[in-house]
Structure formats: C-alpha cells, structure tokens
Amino acid sequence: MVRRTRKCDAIEENRSLDAKVSSEISQQTQWMLAVRDERDRAAFAKLFDHFAPRLKGFAIRSGASNAHAEEIVQEVLLAVWHKASQFDPHRAQVSAWIYQIARNKQIDQFRKEDRPLPEVLLVEEDDTPDADQILALEQETQELHTALGKLNPEQRELIEQTYLGELSHSNIESLTGLPLGTIKSRIRLGMARLRHEMKGLR
Where is the RNA polymerase sigma-70 region domain (predicted)? Predict the structure, then answer.
C-alpha cells in the first residue's frame, strides 16, 4: 500500500511539473505535449504547419535540393510523431528537440554517402529562418538550377561535382580521367558563365 501511495505521489508530482512547465514554455512545446500525452492529431497538424517550412529552409541551407528537402521534412516530422513519447519538456524546448532529429538524419545521410558535413550541421540551430527567408532560399535555388541548365554539359557536370558533390579536383580527375588542367579550366569558365547567367535571372 505504501508503494502504491509513493507511485501515485510520483505521478501527481510529474503532472504538477508538466503543468508548471506548460505555463512557462512555448506554444509549440505545449502542442508537442498534447501529441505526446494524448496523440492529439490537431496539435500535430499545428506542429507540422509551424515547423515544415523552417525545417525545409534548414535542409536547403545544408545542401539539399528543393525536392530532397521536402522528403527530409516528411521523414523528420514522421519521426516526431513516432518518437513523441521520448520528448521531455524539462530538458529541451520542442524546437531544439525537433532540430536535433533533423540534424541527426542529415548527418547519417552524409556519412552513408561518405560526404563531408556542411558547416550548418556542425553547429546548433539557434535562429530558425522565417517564411521570407525560406522563399528567398527557394528562389535562389531555382535560379541556380536554371543557370546550371544553360551551361554546356561538360562544365555543368564538373561544377556540380565540385560544389554540389563536394569532390576535390583530384577526386574528379580519378573519376573522369581528365587532365587536372582541363578540369580547372572548365570549372573556371563554367563559373564565369554561371555568374553571368545568375545576374541575368535577377
């Protein structure tokens, strides 16, 4: 009987702490508590609407394409739903918890592909981008893809391998068999053309 009383006291204490935390934390964390404790789909929909564009901006800044960024958002928010029971508001705000899930997923992907980690994944996410920033990022990404499409195939392939694939010139030399001087020359000329095309689009 004593054990049961202690257990009940512990449960009540945890509920009291959660109630206290709920009065002090962000609305987003309160939504997360509703998802965790009640599997509240309406609260999850609010979380989705709030974090989806911010996570997409984060993914784009770490090197993902627009389409890949959308896939990352879906995977991360699906993980949020399934891992909701692991969320502890006493340890972190929901924004920090969700961004950690996103960061871990992207780090795992980069390691699987044996690619160097972008700087954005090496530091904690402090300020999430707002809708205007995300729109600007998407516009810049679209402009870049349009400009790349106007290069000749040889230049475009080398630029994508260097800047999007993050391969060194020596790596490209091994992959393509092209002389190092040819690789450097094509990249230099391609970048000059790319800058010209980007100016034209703006």
Answer: 47-115
Q: Fill in the DSSP letter of residue 91.
A: T
CB 148 within 8 A of CB 194: yes
| Cα 12 from chain centre | 37
Query: Do 87 and 94 contact (CB within 8 A), yes or no?
Result: yes
CA distance between the termini of the chain: 75
Burial of 70 (0-12, 13-18, 19+ CB in 10 A): middle
3-state secondary structure (DSSP) of residue 87: coil
DSSP 166: -
Give CA–CA dist 152/46, Å, rounded.
Answer: 45
C-alpha pair distances (Å), 201 with each of 12, 145, 147: 61, 11, 8
CATH architecture of the domain 23-129 equals: Orthogonal Bundle (1.10)
Long-range contacts formed by 112-120: CB under 8 A, 24+ apart: 115/165, 115/166, 116/166, 118/61, 118/62, 118/63, 120/58, 120/61, 120/62
Architecture of domain 150-201: Orthogonal Bundle (1.10)
Q: Would you say the pTM of this structure is higher than 0.70?
A: no
Q: Model confidence over 68-87: pLDDT tens digits?
A: 888 888 999 999 999 999 99
